[in-house]
Amino acid sequence: MKGSNHTDSGVRYYNLGVVYQKRGESEKALRAYQRALEVGFSYANMYINIGVIYYQSGELNWAIQSYLKGIEIDPHNAAAYNNLGNPYSKQGRLNEAVKSYQKAISLSPDCDKAYYNLGRLYQQQEDLRGAIQAYHKAIQLNPNYTKAYYNLGVAYCQQGVVGETVPLNNNRDELLNDTQNSEMESGPSDAISYYNQGIAHYQQRAWEDAISAFQRALRIDSNHPDVKLKLESVYFDQGVAHYQQGEFKEGIRAFEKVNNNTDTHNYLKIGYSKQGQLDHKNGRFREAIQAFQHILNMEPSSDESITAYNYLRQSYIAQGNIYYQRGRFREAIRAFQHVLDIQPKDVDACNYLKEVYITQGGYILSRRQVG
Fold first, then answer.
1. What CA dihedral angle connects 68, 132, 170 and 190, to 10 degrees?
2. CATH 1.25.40.10, the chain: domain bounds
3. Among residues 28, 29, 25, 62, which one has the least CA distance to residue 46?
4. Cβ contacts of residue 311 below 8 Å, gap of 6+?
5. How confident is the prediction along the chain (371 residues), in pLDDT tens digits per residue?
6. N or C: less crowded end of the chain, CB within 10 Å?
7. Per-residue CA distances from 38 to 6, 49, 51 (Å)
8. DSSP secondary-structure letter at 59?
9. What Cα–Cα distance (Å) separates residue 362 from each residue in 329, 331, 371?
10. b/e map of 89-107 (b: 16 or more CB within 10 Å)?
11. H/E element, 43
């Protein structure tokens, strides 16, 4: 054990204390640690554990003394410095708290808990930029750090309303509690935790991660109005982002998940039009026809109708010609007849249809002669 002076009996008492502490039996744990000390066992992490017990019971001065004793035994113990910052923070000794967290990070650059606690401290001081940066670093080191996602979501909500309370949940503290190194991380158990996690992903334009978080929130609380609205916002913004990248199919799928309103309706028509034109250009006439039919079923404006009908006509004629060239006369006839359904006197469709009938008749006659 690093930073320790131990005997066999001291180790046994220490291990017994750890077991009691994990069970939440703090008094028994303290007695076991005391017996370890009495037999000459001196171990930095034991003092850290003792400090955690004192801290959780609100005895902040005793917690500080315990952490400092751990640091005295092992000056390079990042966990001790991280934990030391928490009672300093509780006592309002903010400069000392910041120095403790920063020291933990300098000793252990991958100490995600120190970044988390530093972010929490910055957030309490309304330094949202510093808080967001610290939370991002904690999440980078630990992608499953749910507490960091929660507080990061709160920080994003606070942007623009600095100095005001963000009423995310009236039944809990605005920020999740600080993290001691002996505590176990657990996943969020309520909708608001997943909601804030979703906001954090949303701000980073990580659409799928945001959607997953909001959907988990809805599974916990299916009637939560804020989550439903935010989920629709994600789908909407995701759709816009796909359109900007020329990914119209993906954009359409996103917009189809948003409640129908004027903006969504218009974006869907734009998407179907763009995708239809793209399919037509690349010879995917069946897909193009489906896209333009969608537009015509959506109460388009007169200009939109003209554009849709024009492309629909072109796609049917192109499709008909392909069928004709391949000898698939029935399909060709149906395609040209669709054009006549749109415009009964379409000259091109009439001529193509006439040519198909003539060719089809000659083809059938030749088949009979061969037979």
1. -90
2. 188-259, 280-371
3. 29
4. 273, 276, 277, 280, 288, 292
5. 554 555 678 889 999 999 999 999 999 999 999 999 999 898 999 999 999 999 999 999 999 999 999 999 999 999 999 999 999 999 999 999 999 999 999 999 999 999 999 999 998 888 999 999 999 899 889 987 878 887 887 887 776 543 333 334 433 344 555 556 543 333 444 677 777 777 777 777 888 888 887 888 888 877 777 777 778 888 888 888 888 888 888 888 888 888 777 788 888 888 888 888 888 889 898 898 888 888 888 877 878 888 888 888 888 888 888 988 888 988 888 988 888 888 888 888 888 888 888 887 754 434 433 33
6. C
7. 11, 17, 18
8. -
9. 12, 17, 14
10. beeebeebbbebbebbbeb
11. strand 42-43
Which pair of structure tokens corresponds to residue 137? 């670093």
Contact 180, 196 (CB under 8 A): no
Mention the CATH class of domain 188-259. mainly alpha
Distances from the Cα of 8 to the Cα of 39, 275, 326, angstroms: 9, 74, 89
Contacts of 260 (CB under 8 A, 6+ apart): none
Instruction: Provide the whole-model pTM.
Output: 0.54
Element spanning 356, H or E: helix 347-370
Token duo for residue 179: 């993290």
For 280-371, which CATH superfamily applies?
Tetratricopeptide repeat domain (1.25.40.10)
Is residue 148 a contact partner of residue 119, using CB atoms and an 8 Å limit? yes
